[in-house]
Amino acid sequence: MKVCIMGQGYIGLPTAALFSRSHCDVVGVDINEEMIENLNKGIIHIEEPGIADIIKKSVKKHTYKASLTPEKADAFIITVPTPYIVENYSCDLSYVITACETIIPYLEKGNTVIIESTIAPMSTDEVIKPIFEKAGFTIGKDLYLAHCPERVLPGRILEELVHNDRIIGGVTPECAVKASEVYGQFVEGYLMLTEAKTAELSKCMENTFRDVNIALANELAKICAEIGVNALDVIKMANKHPRVNLHSPGPGVGGHCLAIDPYFIYAKAPETAKIIKLARDTNKSMPSFVCEYVRKIIPDGKIAVFGVSYKGNTGDDRESPAYEIIAELEENGYEVAIHDPHIDRDEFVSFADAVDGAKLILILCDHDEFKHPDYELISKKMENPIIFDTKNIIYKVPDDMTLYNYGNLYTINTK
Question: Out of 65, 129, 178, 203, which one is annotated catalytic?
């Protein structure tokens, strides 16, 4: 089977790797010329265990190649971004539409087209299907169209793409069957065949469920800071109940899935989806909440920001709330030094340079490196070390340091 995958990002590249490992002929398409050049040398641009090795081997075996343009194939998979439109929170399908229009000259009767990009409910039927019908195809007869969303965790993408159950949403039952044959090349989880619109809403609701539950924890943290209760103790005690699983509060929600997908549902029914929107508003408010307490801890000076990835132990910083926090701190006159061992950028600094002369260490990501920092170096570089841990990953610090987290923020209000 030959597979053409449009988009070589956090989902497209791992998917391409698994198809190529399964002896398929894979063409990975992207508009980034530098990325394409590097991929054809076996050099990948994302931090994810296992992918680099597969791509290097596949390039050598000629089972994978990267290209700026599509090629004829048996199956075409669209994995391009779908941001939301700020004005009305609706799904921006422009990248998906462009990708679909781009592959039309390469389509042949009997091909399968799969949209993996997360899209709003009804998008496949109302927007994507007409594109191919206008080109002369009959969906379900000579072209098979489906929406098959991914559900993976950064750091475990390859494992979860293989072993997780997969939703196969066909425009017609025949489309679902054809799409399932494509994923049958490597997926070992259960293939759940359904309608495209059900698949679309299922994907959005999976992430909305998580966003709402995180919002509940974040709202609890705000309440506890206000009324004088240890939020972390509340969560620990409540979670002893056999049917309760409160999440941990944090600095906000990042990544494409949780930070964006709920808006796609809200935009479809804004008068009804009130809980969904309120949860989004709560999580969007957390960067300002963090900055509010930074100002209470130190009125000015240098802040060492630890981590901008939205997910620990990865270099994935899509929609990371850390950037909103950094921007607000800089607007308020703070000097900000950013350290993230998983992201290589010219403006980022080393651990030692970040803490040198800083008045506060602000932890915004739960990288393993931050769970047991070099306290001896911190003591040498900082006069009165203070740590504000918004990820609740440090449990104890040396006696000469002060630790704030969501368990004791209320103590700041009483000073």
Answer: 203
